[in-house]
Design a protein that fits this description.
Layout: H1 10-21, H2 24-36, H3 40-68, H4 74-79, H5 85-118, H6 125-133, H7 136-155, H8 158-183, H9 189-197, H10 201-206, H11 208-222, H12 229-234, H13 243-271, H14 284-295, H15 299-333, H16 337-352, H17 359-388, H18 391-395, H19 405-439
Helix pairs in contact: 1-13, 2-11, 2-13, 3-11, 3-13, 3-17, 3-19, 5-7, 5-15, 5-16, 5-17, 6-14, 7-15, 7-16, 8-13, 8-15, 9-13, 11-17, 11-19, 13-14, 14-15, 15-16, 17-19
The structure holds tryptophan.
Amino acid sequence: MAQRETWTSRIGFIFAAVGSAVGLGNIWSFPFQTAANGGAAFLVVYLLAVFLIGFPTMMVEFVIGRRGEQNPIASFGKIGYGNWSFTGGLGLFSSLITLSFYSVVGGWVLSYILGSATGAYFGDAGAYFGSVASGPTAIGGHLVFMVLTIGIVASGVTDGIERATKVMIPGVLLLLVALAGWATTLDGAAEGYSYYLSPDFGVIASNFGSIVPPAMGQAFFTLSLGFSVMIAYSSYLGRDDSLPADGGAIVVVNTLIALLAGFVVFPILFATGGAEGAGGGAGTAFVALAGAFGSLPAGGIIGFFFFAVLLFAALSSSISLLEVPVSYVSENYGYKRSTTAVAMGGLIAVIGVPATFGTSWLGFYNDLVFKLLLPISVLLLAVFVGWVADREAVDELGRGSSVGESFTSAWLWWVRLVVPVAVIVTLYLGVEALYTGLASGAYF
Ligand code: TRP
């Protein structure tokens, strides 16, 4: 067998992983989930979920990938007994379902690029969201976004996009810092910060059941965990890279970008009427940001630039959502890559159409992934590495890194016990919420 390629540099791997992690999850989903679930109370649980459960889970995927050194399905067979490859398959399946509604939101971004150029959202940002988030415009945007994604994956130019992302991500960061600075001057800023940042522990305690599933789901989603993508990426890592150090860098950068988005969105929301108004739902970030651009001098230009950058961040995520399953199928079943991309992408485009019917339909797709598919995947991953995988695989964590034996065993026991228990609680609460939502007709 030919020598397997590896990343040409450690930075190359980190950038690819950050490109996958940073996306609509940070700038759309994070502020929206935070606004909808009580602000600071959500933030606290989310940060705990990212660092205490997300980071160790990222190490789980890295260990499987680098030790397995194969595609994310075959890797499971190489490092433990029994047939656990369905876990990798579930991740690929979740990627496709996620792409189906991610693309709908990507379509909104396209509408906002257009709206920045024409000034269509300057008058009434809430009404503009209503007019593009569902119906024919939403279907159009979704299809254009899918065509872009399929085109890039089918033609194999994903490298170009990834290179562009390296420039774009610092761009997102700078723009968010500038906007956050400006947002400090707003009238509602103090109230916004307090909603966002001062947790009421009583609120956390009494809403525990409704906060934990979205917070945990958001942590997995934003770090691209449970999708097999981190397994795929880390399978190309060199032996002397430090998994904890690389993972730590990815988690920190990704978290910073989400937090910054909150520092922009919450002051604006409270300057324009509070978290309940347009704020509580899927439109939170779009309405707040567009409202801000509409009121700024040269806001159309800033808006255009901002949403263009967001489009790149979204595309670098969407191509990886499609790319990983397409590579698997085309490499293992011998189909042409371009044909596979068109067939899978076309199917996903169709599956996504109902998510354009209204934000509650989109919410169903979102909840299906956040509350059901991701916790199941992560539970399987943790049980596999914690209890089934061979010791060699577990020791992969410390290879190339300065962490000692005791770090590895602390992590192992954490993955054996804490992660599964936390995820089982999440899953129980999430499934209950999903069921209640369906029974009460909250979705459709
Ligand atoms: N993390 C991405 C975001 O926050 C979304 C995402 C989830 C993703 N799973 C993925 C991207 C898998 C690429 C591959 O927007």
